[in-house]
Amino acid sequence: MAVDLVPLRAGSADLVDAAVAVTRDSDAESDVTSAAALRAQLGSPDTVMGSSRLAMVDGHPEGLLIVERTAGSNTVFLDVRVRGERAIDVAAALLRSGLERADGLGGVSLVQASADENDSAMAAALADAGFLEVRRIWRMWRPLGDGDATEPAPPTGVARRVVSGPEDLRILHALREASFEGTYGFESRAFENYVEVLDSPDHADPEGWWIATLDDRPVGLCVLDDSHADRGDAYIRTVGVIPEARGRGIGRWLLGCAAAYAVRGGRHRIGLTVDGRNDTGATDLYLSEGYEALEIVDLWERPLGNAAVSATSR
After folding, report:
1. What domains lie within the chain, and their CATH numbers?
2. Were 168 and a residue from 12, 77, 163, 297 both cysteine, which residue would form a disulfide, CB within 3.0 to 4.6 Å?
3. What tens digit of pLDDT does each residue of 201-212 get?
């Protein structure tokens, strides 16, 4: 079987439509894939379009590789989606291509990829390519109803405001860095890169960018986007509270505010993504707020270059 890997180009509508078709078929059981979310991903500053590929078999699109790298990071993520009876062979071809291109980017020492917990073909391809399973990610959703339309009362001394102007953007960035520093997989971003990713024209929702304050001091953030609006869903890209302000119900309150905001916007469901082994209590919070893990994804890693040699020699 010959797998033809076609370079993806953001301006090629036919190729992007084919990529959307692959994604919808590969995620049919979980029903969480959004065409708008994929198009937003392809247009993200983190996506290395020159290294991303569409896999064609007998003239039909059967796989997709999106190569992602945060500016300045030593880690590359290979987002591989496959469909059809030849999924394991297509996945293997895409992973080989992704590893070659990650190595060619320079300065990369770690490559990550993922597989749905029930996707044995992808798991086998990852294992054959030298990846090891290291983490479990939950993609969680909860339905919204009329009862969510009213914002909950804030904890004592707590308020929120919509981000307004350059100073607030810097505060939002600083809150992100402080809230997630030290957590698994967190990558610090320079302010300029953060704003570039945040303000992507495909899914930005500036009215849903909030700073939470405690006695007028910024202590938390919540960032929603429109990446799943084509399905009538709201999506929380980031919600966090700095360590010294936790335990006061601020995170739970921000979730309630997000639900109310989503209902006012005509959304029927709201979602987020979390590390299933998060040790901050976030997973328990989301479960208690009615979120359900509709998709569980295993994260795999493989060292690259000199790092791979060092890992093998230990």
Report:
1. 4-138+298-313 (3.40.630.30), 145-267 (3.40.630.30)
2. 163
3. 567 899 999 999
